[in-house]
Design a protein that fits this description.
alpha+beta, five-stranded antiparallel sheet
Length: 151
Amino acid sequence: MTMLEELKGIYCKKGGELKPFEKFEGEVRKGYRIEYEKKLNEIDVAFFGLASGDLNPVHFDEDFASKTKFGGKVVHGMLTTSLVSAAVARMPGTIVLLEQGFRYVSPVRIGDTVRVEGVVTEVVKNRCKVDVKCFVDDKVVAEGWVRVLIW
C-alpha cells in the first residue's frame, strides 16, 4: 500500500470527503465555466495545518478562537482557495497553475461546504485567466483570479 492510499484511508475514516478526480469537458475559451464544491471538515484543517505548517490557534483551539472577532475556529483562508486549484485542475488538458490573487471576504467554518465558481475571462494562446468566487451557501467568502497554462 502506498503512503497516499494509507492516508486516504485515514482521511476518510476521520470524516474527510474524497471526490474522484474527473476532468470537465468542452473547449476552454472566453466564457468557459467551472464549478466545484467540497465540505471542509476538521480533518481537512488538520491535514492542511500539518502540510503547510500553519498551526495558528485560530484554526485549532476553540478557546483561543472564541476570543477573536471570529467567535470560534475558522478554516484556513488558503485551504478555502485551494479548492480553486482543484476546480481548475479539472479543466480539459494538462493544467499548470501559474499565478493567483485572492481577497478573503468572510470566514469559513469547519463543516461548511465551499462552492467554487469560475469563468474564463481571457485566453492568450495556451494561457488563460479564470475569475473565481468561493461561496458558502449564497455568501461570497473569497474572490479573485488564477492564471493557468494548458497543454
